[in-house]
Amino acid sequence: MPDPSADTLVVVTVDGGVGRLRLNRPEKRNALNEALSRAIIDGMRRLDDDPEVVVIVIEGTDGSFCAGADMAEMQAAEQAGAVNANVASRATDRVEASTKPLIAAIDGPAYGAGAALACACDIRILSDRSRLRFPGAEYGLVVGAVALPRLVGPALAKELIFTSRVVEADEALRIGLANRVVPAEDLDAAVEEMARTIAAASPDALRWSKATINAAMAGGDALALEHQADLLLRGSADNTRRFAAATQRITGRSSR
Description:
Elements: H1 6-9, E1 10-15, E2 18-23, H2 34-49, E3 55-59, H3 71-79, H4 87-96, E4 102-106, E5 109-111, H5 113-119, E6 123-127, E7 131-133, H6 136-139, H7 147-152, H8 154-163, E8 166-168, H9 169-175, E9 180-182, H10 187-199, H11 203-217, H12 222-233, H13 237-254
Parallel strand pairs: 2-3, 3-4, 4-6, 5-7, 6-9
Antiparallel strand pairs: 1-2, 7-8
Helix pairs in contact: 2-4, 11-12
């Protein structure tokens, strides 16, 4: 079955500050081939450039988040002598480079490149039928070795990568790989609730908060970055409006 056109390989929507990027290659369980990877890169550019988008949700289709890289296409390219530029990794890198909060809505498998894509997001909400796997070492590759230790710690990251074993949803929650696990029928509602809550916050404060947390995890001067952020944000029109509204809510409750 041929792939859909590039315009339908991802479905991008925006509603009330929430941008959604849905992988739409269900016949291949959203495996990342060159066309889908390029469509993700383009979709992320559109959402990052849209001033109305505060938070971005990345999701799959038909009970599959992303089955990994399209190995059949990669093998065919290698056999034909084509240079493998690993566009799946470039798609993941583009997602991770976003300055906006990212939520991965994971239902079903997130394997290999799909697991790496999930780890590139800031928050992961899983259905109870989700599972993740980092099989790069099994295939002679390195997958998730940078992102995974930040989430679960180095010892457990080594175990998961060295063994390539499947991580079920309940374990993912226990080890910090998932923020929340909900029944499959409740996934959309749980993701929507969190996305709407984040979208109500200050876009500038969210971007600076994400940058500061990332710097702290990477060993950068996060404290200086936080001070710089507050110097720039304090007294801005957005800060003044939000602080006044919060003060009014607090004083209003206190007077009752």
